[in-house]
Design goal:
alpha+beta; Creatine Amidinohydrolase; three-stranded antiparallel β-sheet; 21 strands; binds glycine; binds manganese (II) ion
Length: about 450
Amino acid sequence: MIHIPKSEYSRRRKALMAQMVPNSIAILPAAAVAIRNRDVEHVYRQDSDFQYLSGFPEPQAVIVLMPGRLHGEYILFCRERNAEREMWDGLRAGQEGAIRDFGADDAFPITDIDDILPGLIEGRDRVYSAMGSNPEFDRHLMDWINVIRSKAHLGAQPPNEFVALDHLLHDMRLYKSAAEVKVMREAARISAQAHIRAMQVSRVGLHEFSLEAELDYEFRKGGAKMPAYGSIVAAGRNSCILHYQQNDAVLKDGDLVLIDAGCEIDCYASDITRTWPVNGKYSAEQKAIYELVLASQEAAFAEIAPNKHWNQAHEATVRVITTGLVKLGLLQGDVDELIASEAYKAFYMHRAGHWLGMDVHDVGEYKVGGEWRVLEVGMALTVEPGIYISPDNQNVAKKWRGIGVRIEDDVVVTKTGCEILTKGVPKTVAEIEALMAAARAQAA
Ligand code: GLY
Ligand code: MN
Ligand code: MN
């Protein structure tokens, strides 16, 4: 299995600590277990920041980073070994495992945190934490601080500065290392295979969930624990619902099906959309819209390179799509004016992409000092233009209504432009029709 190597977690902790002010402490909790219903839990997914710094997969854990601490800078609070619980729920690293397998300098039982952590915080000037994202943890942190304050008359020194960790950590997460790109390539490869499989089995009369099952099959077979987000399998007019997830309609002759799905490998997401005809052949209108979206995506790729700014790719898609919609008679007027008045938003109402990484909509600022961010090597993003013609749009001829097309790929900025991670899925009309025809011929 391709995964992030241990050495990389250690490198990340050191890089973060190098940015922390002297005599400070960073404290991060693991994700809480989420209850699905009664005593059934949701599949556990580690918090992305916690995972980024530790690779530690268990709940009920807290990372403490103390740059310059003589007895060790990385302290992990985690569950103790417990033969009975491990027989029911699975193995735990315990404190020994935290040190041996996860590189902690020191490890303590999570049940002792109230006794130990105030002593670690005491005397540090600044505390870094993810304030606001986990209210229960924020309360605990204040309790620990108050323990120190209550001992001020004995000479205890509570910290005076509380700083959000996000700014430092999320900027680090924005730049993907070679190891991260490798994992993202693998997530992309498996997701591409899943889209191909769904194209191959696509038939009139199946349900959207049948195609979702094909995606899940490839994801799991490839080693992914789960999709990176709820898969969108949207046939016919459902393709015009941007975050459709009902996935229970029947695939009808003449419909397109839009699938937006990607898996997660070692907590790194992929995010792919393809749109194809259920019956294997695009109609003239479907083809016209599809090729317009594809042309806009090509224009966007050309705008992704170091020193180009974040919004250039989006602007390129807007220009190509608006020009094309005028040519097709779906918009009337002057292209520049239609762009200025945002008339295209009736058909293209979202942005051309987002950062991609451990979170599908990954962390990292899009603007710096009020200006669009300039792209740099290692930044990963999606490129996902779309055109959605509402079934209720009375301003366009009936033949266009209900067509929704999105094409989405994942890229990483390189020295000379960008690497498309998701090239493995066919994309042109000819490629998709050929793949579907071959699958049908084989099945017949
Ligand atoms: N799958 C969510 C998105 O494309 O942004
Ligand atoms: Mn996306
Ligand atoms: Mn997507």
